[in-house]
Amino acid sequence: MSYHIAKIPCGEFGEISKIEEELCELVDSIDQGNKIMALCELADLIGAIEGYAAKHHSGITLVDLIVMKDATKKAFETGTRTSRNAFETRNSKALGLS
Q1: Taking Cα atoms as reference points, which of 69, 70, 53 lies closest to residue 61?
Q2: Which segments of the chain does DSSP mark as H helices, in order?
Q3: What is the dihedral of CA 19, 22, 27, 28, to 10 degrees?
Q4: So what's the pLDDT on residue 61?
């Protein structure tokens, strides 16, 4: 039995596939309008990211990732980095424009 309506393939802990699984579960939770389940999936997503980092980037922790997240946030806040529309970026790359 599962809480999820969408068919979501199981990922392997420590691999990208587990991050994908948890992200799909988050989307399904939001689609169901279940805020509490979505928060649980966010926690599971953090766990999947932590597992991936531990397996593929020995010594890197969630604290290290948060330091980088904070640096990115600061760059956006100060204007030294700007956001681009993901659709435009993806299409530009596909067309060889960037």
Answers
A1: 53
A2: 16-31, 35-56, 62-78, 86-94
A3: 150
A4: 95
pLDDT for the residue 42: 97
Residue numbers of the domain that contains 28: 1-60
pLDDT for position 37:
96
Are residue 73 and residue 36 in the same domain, yes or no? no
Q: Residue 35 has which token pair?
A: 């805020």
Q: How many domains does the chain have?
A: 2
Full-model pTM: 0.79
Q: Which of 24, 22, 13, 82 is nearest to 51 (CA)?
A: 13
Question: What is the Cα–Cα distance from 21 to 27, expressed in whole angstroms?
Answer: 10
44 vs 42: CA distance, rounded Å:
5
In this structure, the answer to whether residues 6 and 45 fall within a common structural domain is: yes
**pLDDT, tens digit, 9 for 90 and up, residues 50-98:** 999 999 999 999 999 999 999 999 998 888 888 776 555 555 555 555 5
